């Protein structure tokens, strides 16, 4: 019977022959170490009960450690995402509170725990499905909306060493999954058998589909300038040359405006429009379903801000220090919060725009501006400046 | 034709930039409310500053009260009721009891109190669990640390003075009116003298009847009188009347 210190060994995950990443990966390291502590404890307990068994050795072997390390890594990434998201909700509430000259959230230190309290409250609500709603689509639509939003948020890398996977076409994959939700919003609005939610769902689909085009053109311009769709490459290129906000200021403005519309935030919250459409396409969703939908909206807001930071504000690059420094994750999150502060500030400043204006703005203003931005990038690239 | 008002707008597309002005306004607001605390007051934990002469619930200075029932009569919501209680010496006296649930904090009782025994306290948190607790007896009405600022003094101009052109003479309500006796109606029953809270009424003999019994008539001590109208209300023959005497 071996002592517990023989079972809990904190080894370097890079020494595992099945290590899935080429470079060091922070969340994987954390997940691997968590498994080494947890699994070591379990293996030791089994070994105490049945000395000399092979299950303990199998649990601490390379294959099982690697697999459970990856599962725990996903949990770690989700936890970080979730905490960032709660912080963003807190930032928004505090900024709006200060804008209205009142104290915003008050629960916990600096009002930080209010979101958790709200989550607990919605969690305790009854699960109600309308009688005439289409039950399957009603439930699946909200599941896919929430799931795809969380998935996209988890795929955002926080730094060169904090990522889920280093995709070759990261931007395209993230945006492709980001565009799943509009279809499901239409399905959700239709399935509830309610005129408000149907109108909201149709508005949501129309708005999101028309605003995806300028965003894709901005993506194209960024990828053209960096020469890659890989997020790591884009950030490295910006770190070596200049942040893309300087040559592509038009693209940045287009992306922020269209991204605000994609995240369904004021002044583009027509699908919700609580003054005219009760709660828009979420009207018949109650309890934790509604809570998750609200949470997923903030996840989508986080994705928009993070993409804006990656594409235009240099990602995790710190000026004069380079992209691969110690506080890269913090620098990235600070930039995200700065961008989100601008979004919250906009929410406190502007009113909702009209239905006819929103498509006008998308097709007649943002699309030509995005094409102009692409043209500028092509000229710069051909001229050899970048 | 259809868009006749649209032509009045300038054709300049830069006019859409008015949006940026509102950003500047809200940015100033964020900075301002970020530097100082917001205007909201966390009520149960922090309390609003109370001005001087604040009219909260009515209070009573037990020893100054003479039980003249003026407050009961003047109260607009009739929340004051006179009750008989024992004072410190064991004597039974009349004192006001206030139903604070009905009180509208107007302070009229304190204004018209002739001895300024009624005061307006700065107390405003009066919620209770039962309605019975809202009825404050004379001892509950006492307010520790009462001072002269809690008394309410009013002064009035006489209409006769205003007609004469004098508008700078202010009188206390106590000094203006006095009861006047209609001698023919009086039956000399002495109820006014028994009722008077300040002992300003004295019954004196003015003669004898044919059967040899004394004929009594009230005499009013105008210095002591506080014009509380108790004698007028109690008089069985309506022989007394309150009149402006100054």
- Could you give the count of β-strands of chain B? 9
How many distinct helices of chain B? 7
Contiguous low-pLDDT stretches of chain B (5 residues minimum) are: none
Overall helicity of chain A:
55-70%
First-residue to last-residue Cα separation of chain A: 65 Å
Beta-strand portion of chain A reads under 5%
Strand order of the largest sheet of chain B: 2-3-5
C-alpha geometry of chain B: elongated
Q: What is the rounded Rg of chain B?
A: 30 Å
Biggest sheet features of chain A? none
The count of helical stretches of chain A stands at: 14
Are there runs of chain A of 5+ residues with pLDDT below 50, and where?
none
Give an overview of the whole structure:
- The complex is a heterodimer of chains A (386) and B (246).
- By secondary structure, chain A is mostly helical.
- Chain A has 14 helices and no strands.
- In chain A, helix 6 (135-155) runs antiparallel to helix 8 (180-191).
- The model of chain A has no long low-confidence stretch (mean pLDDT 87).
- Chain B has 7 helices and 9 strands.
- Chain B has a 3-stranded antiparallel β-sheet with strand order 2-3-5. In chain B, strands 1-4 form a two-stranded antiparallel sheet.
- The longest helix of chain B has 17 residues, at 19-35.
- Chain B is elongated, with a radius of gyration of 30 Å.
- The chains are: A mainly alpha (386), B alpha+beta (246).
- Chains A and B meet through helix 4 and helix 13 of A and helix 1 of B.
Brief overview, please?
The complex is a heterodimer of chains A (386) and B (246). Chain A has 386 residues and is mainly α.
Features of this protein?
heterodimer; A: 386 residues; mainly alpha; 0% strand; B: 246 residues; alpha+beta; 3-stranded antiparallel sheet; 7 helices; 20% strand; elongated
Architecture blueprint of SSEs:
The complex is a heterodimer of chains A (386) and B (246).
Chain A: H1 4-7, H2 26-49, H3 55-59, H4 62-99, H5 114-123, H6 135-155, H7 170-178, H8 180-191, H9 195-226, H10 231-240, H11 249-262, H12 287-312, H13 328-349, H14 355-382
Helix pairs in contact in A: 2-4, 4-12, 4-13, 5-12, 6-7, 6-8, 6-12, 8-9, 9-11, 9-14, 11-12, 11-14, 12-13
Chain B: H1 19-35, E1 58-60, H2 70-74, E2 80-86, E3 92-99, H3 108-112, E4 118-120, E5 135-136, H4 159-164, H5 173-176, E6 177-181, H6 191-195, E7 201-208, E8 214-220, H7 230-234, E9 240-244
Antiparallel strand pairs in B: 1-4, 2-3, 3-5, 6-9, 7-8
